[in-house]
Amino acid sequence: MSTHRIPLAGVIGAPISHSRSPRLFAHWLSEMGIEGHYAPLHVEPADFEQVIRTLPRMGFRGANVTLPHKEAALAIADRVSDRARRIGAANTLTFGEDGIHADNTDGHGFVANLRQGAPDWQPEAGPAVVLGAGGAARAVLDSLIEAGVPTIRLANRTRARAETLAATFGPKIEVIDWDRANEAFDGAATAVNTTSLGMKGADPFDLDLSALPASALVTDIVYVPLDTPMLIAARARGCRTVDGLGMLLHQAVPGFERWFGATPQVTEATRAAVLA
Ligand code: ATR
């Protein structure tokens, strides 16, 4: 009798219906002709641990984890990658013989998107400006430091949040007052919006970019809309921009490789499949 089981994975969150990951994985599975399934799983915090402990017995190879479970996912793991530990949260769980392995691929996705969108980007060429100090900012800061930026100027409306974050990442991070963020753009090689400003339905983006040099590479982790007010304003200054959708696509690659055993490509077709 065959013990062949179709590989399963999924994305766990609450809410989960808006997640684009099921569409992304379905596209890659069909593109590569791989027999497998990837499901959206709505799980409340009270049920998270029990669900995670049950999934491997149901044939799941692993799962992506999104809000509000990213810290709980780290806590439940038997092994934790260095970057997940530094970020303090996990988005990718892999179920192995030796237990649950937790990783955080958000920062990888962030930098891979920039490298694909701007192959000649030189992170070491000058300071990076990061706007925002929420959960997404942690992964962005970690990956920018790994990529070799010399310094990071971190501005957040609530300064205390930026200071807490800076304290965990060390001396490369300089905290800037939100009302002086415009000065932080002076001489920057890279500028990143990790706040919800400019997102559909959120507050409008109203920062002054007049100090931003035309040589800077600018990106926004907001991808609804794809072309955000920050990106439009940066292009008006002559800057190159990379939209945030690729971060979502690239952060999914390591999980796909581990659970389905093949390396998916991020292409225009991938973007179209996710946006459809
Ligand atoms: P995430 O974890 O996805 O990054 P978050 O923790 O809610 O989300 O963080 C949202 C970010 O957008 C924060 O940096 C927030 O600033 P505060 O820390 O001061 O709340 C920022 N943000 C949201 N609305 C803003 C506004 N109107 N002006 C400036 N920053 C704003």
TrEMBL record:
SUPFAM superfamilies: Aminoacid dehydrogenase-like, N-terminal domain (SSF53223), NAD(P)-binding Rossmann-fold domains (SSF51735). Homodimer. Residues 128-188 form the Quinate/shikimate 5-dehydrogenase/glutamyl-tRNA reductase domain. Belongs to the shikimate dehydrogenase family. Its EC number is 1.1.1.25. Involved in the biosynthesis of the chorismate, which leads to the biosynthesis of aromatic amino acids. Catalyzes the reversible NADPH linked reduction of 3-dehydroshikimate (DHSA) to yield shikimate (SA). The gene is aroE. One of its GO terms (molecular function) is shikimate 3-dehydrogenase (NADP+) activity. The keyword Amino-acid biosynthesis applies. It comes from Limimaricola variabilis. Keywords: Amino-acid biosynthesis, Aromatic amino acid biosynthesis, NADP, Oxidoreductase. This is Shikimate dehydrogenase (NADP(+)).
